[in-house]
Each structure stands twice: as structure tokens, then as C-alpha cells.
Prior knowledge:
Shape: globular
Number of helices: 9
Helix content: 40-55%
Domain Uracil-DNA glycosylase-like: 38-196
Order of helices and strands: HHEHHEEEHEHHEEHH
Family: Belongs to the uracil-DNA glycosylase (UDG) superfamily. Type 4 (UDGa) family.
Strand order of the largest sheet: 2-1-5-7-6
Bound molecules: uracil
Distance between the termini: 42 Å
Strand content: 15-25%
Number of strands: 7
Radius of gyration: 16 Å
Structural class: alpha/beta
Largest sheet: 5 strands, mixed
Protein name: Type-4 uracil-DNA glycosylase
Amino acid sequence: IREQLLARPQPASWNMLDAGLRGCVQCPLHAPATQVVPGQGPRDAEIMIVGEQPGDQEDLAGVPFVGPAGQLFDALATESGLDRGLAYVTNAVKHFKFEPRGKRRIHKTPHKTEVHACRNWLQTEIRLVQPKLIVALGATALAALTGDGKDLLKRRGGIEDHDGTPVFVTVHPSFLLRLPVAEQAKAKAEFVRDLRMARDYLA
Length: 203
Ligand code: URA
């Protein structure tokens, strides 16, 4: 399998990436999902934001980070002085993984085989955009970018490496949404501080 993954041809252009993503059957997640959710943003962005996978609303819209986590990210990014419109925003995994529960679709964390299967798309995005900095939001993005997603909180705020491109490590905004309300203000302030550090890295 490793040889097959390594041998897989890498799309050389945005058109090839788009076509490849739309026809992707590299893992089982494409079947139940509504559609693939490609990255969004300027193709020459200096900063790339990488999340985990599309959620329920992203799956329906076909656009990353438009649901609750995305809205929180936008608000806190604005507060930090980082304009989402200037960033290329994408996910480690491009299809929504969920478990049907009644009428609801409950988010499920992607398995590492799914993250691995999707890595060539992320690598292609990075090659095409050539960002100066990648921001990894949470452990799945960190694993996809560095091969290791462990000890996220210890690595938070640090700069790591993806094939020569610096990777800034922080938490995922959905982590903030899951905290007890009493802890959210402090956690949001810490996230804004992180995004400011990332922004300052580019200055
Ligand atoms: N969470 C993510 O990681 N990505 C999205 O696009 C939406 C929610």
C-alpha cells in the first residue's frame, strides 16, 4: 500500500487537483458524503490554514469552515488581525466522516488510514499555493502535515516543518466550542494569541 501511495501521480495543476478531488475514491469516505470539500482562498496566499475535515454544513455547502467551528474561527481570526479572506483554508481530509443518528449526522474523527489516503491532495495544495506558513488546527491536521499528531498541547505555539514549509501548531476551534462555558473566554483569548503569533511570523 505504501508503494502504491508513493507512486500515485500528483496533480500538477489546479484543474487536475479539482478533477482528482471530485472523482476521489481513495478511501471509503466519499460514498456517504454529499460532495468533496476542496480548499478555499487565494491561490497565492502567504498563509494556509489546515483543519481536520468538513463538518455537516461544509459537506452540504461544499465549502470549508462555514459551520459553527468555521464561524468561530472567522471571528477569532478577525480579532487577531488575521484576515481569513487572505488565507487559503483547507482540511486534512476532504470528505465528511459521520455516523447517522436519527436525522442528525454525528461527526466522527477520521482514521489515520483516511488521513493518509487524503495526504496527496493536501500536499498538492501546498505545492500549488506555496504558502510561507501553514497553521495546523488540531491533532489531525498536525498528523497529516508532520506525520505525528501526538501531544498537541505541548507542541502548541511552536513551529514545525512540512517539507521545508514552517507549520505553526494550535488547537482546533471545535475544541473551544466543546469546553464548559466558564472556560471558553480564556480559551478563546489563548487562541487569538496563537493566531497573532502566526500573523506576526509573516510580518
Ligand atoms: N472543522 C474542520 O476541521 N474543517 C471544516 O471545514 C469545518 C469544521
